[in-house]
Amino acid sequence: MTDTAPRPTLEAVAARAGVSRATVSRVVNGGDGVRERLAERVRKAVDELGYVPNQAARSLVTRRHDAIAVVVAEPEARVFADPFFARQLRGISKELTAHDNQLVLLLTEGRDDHARVGRYLAGGHVDGALVFSLHLDDPLPKLIRSAGIPAVFGGRPDWNGDQRGVLYVDVDNRGGARDAVRHLAGLGRSRIAHITGALDQTSAVDRLDGYRDVMVDADPRLIVESDFTPAGGERAMRELLARRPDVDAVFAANDLTAAGALRVLRESGRRVPDDVAVVGFDDILPVAEQTEPPLTTVRQDIEEMGRLMARLLLRELDPRAAEERVGGTPSSVVLPTTLVRRASA
Amino acid sequence: MTDTAPRPTLEAVAARAGVSRATVSRVVNGGDGVRERLAERVRKAVDELGYVPNQAARSLVTRRHDAIAVVVAEPEARVFADPFFARQLRGISKELTAHDNQLVLLLTEGRDDHARVGRYLAGGHVDGALVFSLHLDDPLPKLIRSAGIPAVFGGRPDWNGDQRGVLYVDVDNRGGARDAVRHLAGLGRSRIAHITGALDQTSAVDRLDGYRDVMVDADPRLIVESDFTPAGGERAMRELLARRPDVDAVFAANDLTAAGALRVLRESGRRVPDDVAVVGFDDILPVAEQTEPPLTTVRQDIEEMGRLMARLLLRELDPRAAEERVGGTPSSVVLPTTLVRRASA
DNA sequence: GCGGGCGGTGAGAGCGCTCTCGACGACCCG
DNA sequence: CGGGTCGTCGAGAGCGCTCTCACCGCCCGC
């Protein structure tokens, strides 16, 4: 343990500035109702002493923490293959920092951890939570709700039951999927297949729905279920080639899957995009740009998504905003996507 | 704001169990020196009331927070292209969770943020810090030191000045590089080139040193400086082909760079590995497995690195451990690497 | 010229917890 | 059988802050 010099207290600052604790407190917290002359003297004392408020003492009385929990309930796979997660965190971090809030990160590991997270959130250590829980059967949303703590979800949660007052920020997965498939159709392709993502996640379901919106009466054999992984993409593509060797386009539920599909197509002697055009989803840069050929894909602004989630939550927490909100509660947001054309379609 | 029911206090539990506050506190914190009969009664009361200790009140008196900061000082690029960061976080999170510590994440954005981070750390909101700051000129290490807060660095820091007592966990970059180059030599290659990483990071410097260890008197033209990015890898590879068209192997400082190099080699009509063998570094799965051909590379156990960093810091913070430590201060760790053979070399 | 406001300031009471210290039996030894 | 020791527990004093409330000048209006 490093011995830290005893940090100056409000008391010390007050003594130095020749005022009372209350006045120093007022100045430190915005300084309303303190005459400028005095305030100036206090600020000077604060600087000289290097005073930093003790957050614990402050929280004890205000019952606020200026801290937000970010709960990530991904069992390895997805989050850690993508830089996804990092991007969202960055967006969140930016927004929180701008409002002097801290980011407490909770990563969960299997079921047991849910209890721990629930306890933590219910324990009132943070003012709110941003939750990433993309699986349909996830207990987290209920847990959060029963913890009685304000929360915003990343991605549309889809649990059975009351959805009132549930805030989330999602990407327009369905619309993005439609754009992708329409793009393929616009290229003159008619036998457009879809390799789905893991269908226990709303994003995968929505992308599939988007595909169906355009391909209203597609051959069901053109739809192959997969799991968002490259290996899954390979398997699905093989299956697809067996079912419909005449397939001339593939819309994969994400870039990783598309990369797997691309490899199988190459193996099978198909040229991309000449014989089969391929579109992915996510625009994971190190992947989408590195594939052979580079991948046409649907981009989503992940960082913005994080930023928005944080903003929504902070607004929810701010009593001032709560007043303004009368008659217009803050609502969930769905972000647009854009098609990024590269060589694969 | 959600109205949270007033949470029960120690006082309430004490009343219910018919004991004093002090006794409840003892039970809650391990229960030494309390007769089992009483302790049992207290635990029952805790359960019934759903009591959760107020961390703020506790911190106020103990001056401990059971929270550590993770500071990531990466200007975008590296961290967010790799799943690197996510893996490390996971390792850290696991270890911290196991010891009931919270993880406060601080991402920095340019210079201004350093001051903010410094203030935060000096403010005594956390017990220690894990710092990722891979750039030679980074002010963070000094800042941390002057904040007087225990810290462990991820990657060997390299600032001028006193290094005593500086703890870090690093990967054996130099050894891994040696292995990579020896592997290429073992394949019968003699004109082995190296595309470096950004040389303002110790990892890049160490990898270059490892290359030099084996290629003691290599043609300097075989060494091309780059920056860890795919685009940089492409540029470097072009330069290399211009300088030494007879190059028969490339050791790239990381997988992203290798992927860029691979693309240029393909363009130029070289076959990999027949004409030119390529080895990367990091084993970033979604990249290394997706390249054409799949990349032989040097793997580092990133998650373990995070775990170790946390363990080191926690030990540093634990007064008990401090006693045991007499005569043997905890020291930095360098993790081994392993060569992963795929198709590119 | 005097009372009522009012803006500015200080005194003091807690927030919920830990921890020291002293009290109090029970138990042991001589 | 008396004095000391040990284990167990409660009383109470803060930790550093916010916030209410009372107080004190001063300015205004009549």
The portion of residues forming beta strands of chain A comes to 5-15%
CATH superfamily of the largest domain in chain A: Response regulator
The average pLDDT value of chain A, as a whole number, equals: 88
Inertia-based shape of chain A: elongated
According to CATH, what is the topology of the largest domain in chain A?
Answer: Rossmann fold
* Unreliable parts of chain A: none
SS summary, helix count of chain A: 15
* Assembly form of the protein: homodimer
Spatial ordering of strands, largest sheet of chain A: 2-1-3-4-5-11
- CATH architecture designation of the largest domain in chain A: 3-Layer(aba) Sandwich
Radius of gyration of chain A, in Å, reads: 26 Å
Largest interface: A-B, 66 and 65 residues
GO molecular function (chains A, B): DNA-binding transcription factor activity; transcription cis-regulatory region binding
Domain HTH lacI-type (chains A, B): 8-62
Protein name (chains A, B): LacI family transcriptional regulator
Keywords (chains A, B): DNA-binding, Transcription, Transcription regulation
